[in-house]
Amino acid sequence: MEEKEKKEILSKIQSMEKELFFLKEKVLSFGESKATSSSVTLGLPKQTPVIEEKDTVSLEEGPNWFIQWIGQNLFVKLGVFSLILASVWFFYLAIEEYWINESVRIWIGIISSLPILWYGHKTKETRPYLSPSLLGLGIAVLFSAYYSGYVWYDLYGTETCFVGLILLSLTAVGLSYSEKSEVLFGFASLGVFLAPILVSTGQNSYPFLFTYLLIWNALFFWIRKEMPWKAVPLIILLANHLIFAAWADGNLNEAKVFFPLVFQIGVYLLFLIREFQILKNTIEENPILTLVSIGFTLGLGFLQAFWIFGIFYPTLKPFLLTLVLIVFYAIYQRSIEDNSLTTNKKKLYDIIGLFGLPLIISVIVMGLTGKTLAFSLISFAFVVTMAATYSKQLYMYLATFPVWFFALFYIFAFTYRSFNEIPFLNGRFFIFFTGSLYLLLSYFYSRKFSPFSKFFLYSAYPYFLLGNFVEIYLGFAPEKRLFLYSISLIFYGLITLVFGFQKQIQSLKVAGFVSLALVVAKFYLYDFWNLSLGYRILAGLFLGITLIVTGTFYNRIKKETT
């Protein structure tokens, strides 16, 4: 409102200056000759155009915005914090010196909060940065004074103290809602979380604690949807998990699963649903803190679920943690469907989609071992690649590359020969074969989506050859290995070359040509000098036939194209 009035006043002043200039020129033209009037007119200052206020840049939007924020916002909060410290230290000194007795101390705290609250309310229009901090300070002083009467002087019982602290905190919540003040809501939230801790008698009444916190989180869910707050949601999320972790460290093993599990599920769902709703409204602005809140909600929820399921349902832990991730992606998918995605929005959701990727991998790793784990990792990388290509999510597509790398080479963790294992007819070679097939399918499915798809194509054939070499190395005697390496290169090189010529696929032609070139180089540089006479004859025979067939294909293609 003030900005609009400022623009109108500035526009009126400029129009009045313009009118005054023309009146002055007209008066001078009456009293002087035409020539003089002309010279005077020429000597007059140039008319200045009206400057539109919308083209000016305010201090908050200009390069000094950081200094402005420090001066108007941070300094105020530091000043209030300094006053709190000074008051606490003075109060402590007065108690140490016994300048004031017990009852007077309580009343001093209560009465001193009233002028702070009054002044904070009075300055809410003139000093918007100072007012919420003063209101929060006044409530904090009142809260501390009331609690002091319980903890130091036993003026009232535990139930009375708890009810009083809750009423004070809820009053602060109501004020923050009416004032739409994030700072004041932060003070209120602090009181809400501290109340059960301050009056705790050590009886481990966790059903009451978690019910109380869940009700408070539901209230925050209702308030948050109308407020563009950024930092408070993250602070409240961390406070929830900090309280749970402090309690669970010594009590979770002896407790029943219902209340801790319901509390964690409730916090997980409330925060995910709420932050995705807020993201929908702030996605075009600065959603960094909202993204951080979503990431922490998923990460901390997963860790707490891992803790709970590990104690109460250890055998079902991988399955239950998978359900936690499914819930996240269900809410994520629903949020995407509710949005009309632009390019920037899509990039943002692509980044969010990556949040669950390392957690899915951890679930796979903790639930499986050995060859089963290797096959699961390769299958997971393939499925995520297909899903990223289908949904056109480039960030998720690129994030699969390190997963592919780890999955493809995890098989080497158990490259040893087992008893009764048949070469090329075992689980290890099946993983090499499946991995090559997945790589090839990933290329054909995503080649129109991303130029990075060539990574899959250029990896499929070498990975399959590598699997053959591993089987030869583990399954045959040393004197046969060199010969079998050459036979593998000849066999697969000839197949890929023939198929590449028939289907006119240049990459397969290159792969086959490189394989045969390696065989030729290996035969003349190494096999010729190291193989026994019999294997040397066989290697030369196979190589000669293959090269003749290859030359025939090349000559036929040349005749067809000329």
From TrEMBL:
Q: Which InterPro entries match?
A: DUF2339_TM
Q: Which residues form the signal peptide?
A: none
UniProt keyword annotation of Oxidoreductase present: no
Keywords for this entry?
Membrane, Transmembrane, Transmembrane helix
The membrane-spanning stretches of this chain are 74-92, 104-120, 129-149, 155-176, 183-199, 205-224, 231-249, 255-276, 288-313, 319-336, 348-367, 397-416, 428-446, 455-476, 482-501, 537-557
For whether the record's keyword set contains Membrane, the answer is yes
Tell me the domain of life. Bacteria
What is the protein name for this chain?
DUF2339 domain-containing protein
